[in-house]
Amino acid sequence: MNKRGQITIFIILAILIIAGVSIYFVLREGKSSSDIPSEIEPIYVQILSCLEETSKNGIEHNSLHGGYYEIPEAISIEYFSDNIPYYYWNLEKHLPSLERIEIELGNYVYDYLKNCIDFEEFEEKGYKISERQLVVFPEIKEKEVNIYLKYPLTIKKGISIKRLEKFEISLESEIKKFLSISEEIVKSYSENPGVICFSCLDEIAEKNGVQIDAAPFSSSNEDSILFLITSYETKLNWKFAVKI
């Protein structure tokens, strides 16, 4: 009887421990990931949401322009009323560096972020919000892009003064993969300029799990080849051209 009683006590203790651990993790997950005071959390959430939306738009836009937000005029070619960059021109490679692509994405986010930030609804509720210059730091990783935003805000309501400054998001991205594939394509093309090696493109595409299309076109008396890389996973497109 004593042994059965001890076993029962151990079972009850085990159940209580498991329940306690479960409650701990539920409460932990329910907490905000940041120590943002509840009265200004809606402002924080709005900025974070805008940062995510703008960054996604920037990744999509820049990918369609070979990683650029503003393509240098010297390597820009018009394609159906849009501009795309030359990655190979005058027998020289002109691919952007990863650092340049980060800068271009940061410039896009900087220019468009405030288009979706609206403090008016908060000001109508008695908040006074003053802001300082924002700075954007994209960091492109193997399969993601981290966007760091420094946006100093001073938020007043009554006698309460709160401050926000740092925001951060992480998005899935194939930018680094696109750039690596582009380097392979340009290397292959540079070995026999003026010729599209479709078997080479098929090999590169199969190896990287993407679709690669190539087509010649003419613009401003320039004969060029457009390359379009399409991701099967994200459906994003990456475009660039080479000069024939």
Note down, in words, how this protein is organized.
The protein is α+β, with helices and mostly antiparallel strands and 244 residues long. It has two domains: 41-61 and 104-172; 75-96 and 175-243, no CATH class. It has helices spanning 2-30, 41-63, 98-112, 120-123, 175-190, 198-208, and strands spanning 76-79, 82-89, 92-93, 128-131, 135-140, 144-157, 160-172, 210-219, 222-231, 237-243. Strands 1, 2, 3, 8, 9 and 10 form a six-stranded mixed beta sheet that branches. A hairpin with a 5-residue loop joins β9 (222-231) and β10 (237-243).
State the gist of this model:
This protein has 244 residues and is an alpha+beta fold. It has helices at residues 2-30, 41-63, 98-112, 120-123, 175-190, 198-208; strands at 76-79, 82-89, 92-93, 128-131, 135-140, 144-157, 160-172, 210-219, 222-231, 237-243.
Look at the structure and give the mean pLDDT. Answer: 87
Portion in helices: 40-55%
- Per the principal axes of the C-alpha atoms, what is the gross shape? elongated
Broad structural category: alpha+beta
- Number of helical elements: 6
* Amount of beta strand: 25-35%
Q: What assembly state would you assign to the polypeptide chains in this entry?
A: single chain
Largest sheet: 6 strands, mixed
Taking the alpha carbons of the first and last residues, their distance comes to 92 Å
